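Lab notes, practical 5.
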Amino acid sequence: MAGSFGATSTTDDVLSGEDLSEKRVFVTGVSAGLGVETARVLAAHGAKVVGAARDLAKAKRATSEVRAQAAKSGGLELVELDLASLQSVRACADALLADGRPFDTVIANAGVMRTPFGRTADGFETQFGTNHLGHFVLVNRIASLIAPGGRLVNVSSAGHRYSDVDLADPNFDRTPYDPMIAYGRSKTANILFAVEFDRRHRTRGVRASALHPGGIMTELGRHLQPGELEATVERINVQLAIDGRPPFKFKTIPQGAATAVWAAFVAAAEEVGGRYCEDCHVSQVTDGPISPLSPGVRPYAVDPEHAKALWAKSEEMVGERY
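Output from the prediction step:
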């Protein structure tokens, strides 16, 4: 069953016939796009979902229908979380720990993409600080709440191919800032975090994976320059035409969120633990040329020793050890 899905599978396809009524799931970024869809489909299948968002008012508006439907099946509770502020991250984690109820799965979905240069409340480069360090602190602080047999799913991106992490200069203090390189660093970090988290927690039956949701039109692209996306798609389609392949099509949001719920509840734990996934399957490690539409994960993103080094650097940056 776990291998019967692909790029066009939707969240409803993936969870067809699944009963999640005994599951409790934590999802970050439920104010738009993939986060809202992920919360919707999980609650529709009976799961009790705790959704986190920086802007609670926006999240309430975005999930109004989801919450109404969830009341008849599972349930959707909202909590405040600003990943760009470790004070907010720690407050959120403390509240979850005080509540004490375990989670079967944590889906680290929230993120930003290609932002202008900036810094988080704690002085970290915006994309690395938000996409990686915020989740790093949050997940590690609530790791004890992930029940044996549970999973961590990090939403990464094929954008990891643009850049490895730079442990010597993570905040671009000496390196000229490039928004796509910064995004690539943060997405590589998402994968490496899953690799090391999986190594540390697999003995108690908790596994971690990372994934690329696919090319989707969501609010994540709000920092792109006018016409930039269209120009990129045009370049891709020129190459596809040369290769005799059909033109590029964006995934729908239900298709984009499918791999996360597949990795969380459908795929075998041993299949996805410590791995990078896309289109509802585990990707192969690829060191050669990769086109924008070719599958594959770069070796540096799944290297165990590199994952350990990032973990140590991340602990140093946030001032906590796990």
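Observations recorded by the TA: Residues 179-201 form the longest helix (23 residues). The longest strand covers residues 146-155.
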